[in-house]
Amino acid sequence: MLRERRSSLERLFLYAGFRSKGPELCVEKIMITFKRFYNVRTFDSLSIAGTMLLLLCAASASGQSGDQPNIIVVMADDHAQWALGAYGLSQIETPNIDWLADQGVLFENAMTPAPVCSAARASYYTGKMPSQHGVHDFLSEAAEYDADWLAGEKLLSERLVDEGYRTGLFGKWHATTDSRPPQAGFDRWLSYNPYKAGWQNQYVHSGTVHFSSDNTEIQHTGVQARFLTEEAIRFIDMPSPKPFFVSLNFTEPHAPFVGLPERLVDKYRRVANDIVRAGGASDLPDRGAQTTTPADHIEQLSQYLAAVSLIDDQVGRLLDALQGRGLLDNTLLVYTSDHGLLVGQYGLYGKTNATNGPNFYEETIRIPMIIHAPGDEFRESQSRGELVDLMDLHVTVLDFATGGEITETDYGPGRSMRTLLQGKRSTSWRTLQFAERGHARMVTDGRWKLARYYQQESSDTPTDYWYDLAHPFGERHAAEPPRQPLRDRLVDALDEFFSKHETPQHTGKNIWKQPPPNARFKADLEATDKDN
Fold this sequence. Notes:
Number of helices: 17
Number of strands: 16
CATH architecture of the largest domain: 3-Layer(aba) Sandwich
Structural class: alpha/beta
Oligomer: single chain
C-alpha cells in the first residue's frame, strides 16, 4: 500500500512539471519523514500529511533558489580582457556586455588555464588541465592529426544531461579534430564543416559559411554571428519541460581581421592608434612575419575591435530574447572567452604561440568573465578580485545545475564561484593562478610570474623566466628572480599543483612523446629532435 501511495505522489510531482532529480528526491524526503515521525494507519492521515508535505516541497522546488536555472555560456574566440569597455577600454563600444557587467558580477582577475584555442576549450568542457586531458595546442581539423583526443573524458554537456538538461552547441567546438559529428551530451549541434571549404571557412565573419547541423551539411550566407544567435534563440524556444543549456561560441574576434560590418569598423579607424600603437618588443623572439605587427595594423586592429562590437550586438539580442520571454531572472548567463590575444602589444600578433617559446603575457592569459545569475543567487553590481578560470566556470555551472550538490570535483582543480556571486567575503580562495602550453608552465601571484620551460631530457634543468608585473617594463623584459622565500613558494606551488593535475600519458613535460596536434607543433618537435 505504501509503495502504491508513493507512486501516486511521484505522479503528482511529475504532472506538476518538476525537473531532473527534484521530484524523486522530494518524494523520498516525504516517505522518510512519514517513517520517522508518523505512525501512518489510515489513508486519510497519509493523504493529509502527504498533501501538506507535497505543498511544502512544491513551494521549495518552484522557488528561484531550489529550481534548476537555464544556463547560457557565451564564449568568444581570442577576446582579450583588455578589449572591453567593462575592463577599462573607453574607446570601444560594448554597451550590452558592459550592462551585463554593471548589473551582474565582473571578475577582474579571470584567466585561461591554457592560452590557445583547443586546449582552453577542452579544459572548460572537461574541467581538467591540458596535462590531464592531453590537448596542448590548437587542433588541425584533418585526419592526419586525429589522435582520438578527449577519449574517455566526460564532457560538461554529458554531466548536464545527467541532471535533466537539454543541451545545444552553436558555433565553435574545436576541442577535437572534427567539428562535424555532434559531441557527446549535445541534443542540438550546429558547428562547422571544415572538410567542405577548409578550416579557415569557420572564421568568415560575413559571407558563406559551411556548417554541420546535427551532422547534416548546410550553409549560410550573411553575418554568421547573427545566424548563430538566431539558432540559439530558436533552441531556447523549443517546447520542453527541461531547463536548457546553451553553449554559444562565436568565432569573433579571431583572425582574419577582415570582413566585419563597415558600420562598426569605421568607428575604430579613427581611434585604433590611440589604443595600441605600432612598435614595441620583448625578450621572447617572434615566430616570423605572420606573428609581428603588420603594415596595415590600424585596419586590422579596427577590424578586431569591430568584431568585439559585433559580439556585443549579439549579447544584446540574447538579453532581449531572455527578458521578452520572462527567462532572464531564471538563467545563469555567462560571457567569457577561451583566452586573450596580442594585437600589436610587444610588436606581436597572436596568442601563446606568437613567440618562441610560448608566452604567458597578461594580454594572452587574461579573459573577460562576467556572470548574471538567477534571482537571489547573486549580489548584483559586483566586482570580484579573486583569481578564477574556465575550470572554475565548469564547476560553477555544475553547482547551479545540481542545486549546490557539486562545489568542487575530484577530477580537476576547479571550484564553484557561487559564493563569490552571492557577494560573500572570501578568505580561503586561492592566491595563485596556473596555466600551461605544451612543455611550458606558468604560475603567478598577481605581481610575480614564473614561466618555466621543461627540457626534452627530464634530467636537464628547466629554463625559468621571472617577471615583475609591477616594474615599469612589465613583461617586456625578464626580471631578476624575487627573494628566495617567494621564489621557493612559487616553484613549490607549481610542482605541487601539477603533481595533482597531470597524468603520465598527457603531461606537458613529455610533450615530445605525444601525437602532434598540428603541423606547426610537429615541426617544432622535429626541430627539437634534430637539435638533440
